[in-house]
Task: structure prediction
Amino acid sequence: MKKIHKESYEIYGSPKITELLNKKGEKVSQKYVYSIMKENNIKAKYIKPYIQTTVSHDFSDKLKNLLNRHYDPTKPNVAW
Result:
């Protein structure tokens, strides 16, 4: 069980380890694997998925003047 846990980069928890042990021919329950993991202080690591926010390389190219607003006034305080 420790070998499976180490090979998975310590990501797998008791459900996945139970599944792999059952496929190898070892008849164990998830509760039994969980109790052994708890006794040996083995915990699965949760890896938070990386979410990229709105970052675009061509973002300024997509901006268009759809309302035909004139943003280049000839002198100060003319546009307001």
Observations:
- The CA atoms of residues 11 and 49 lie 13 Å apart.
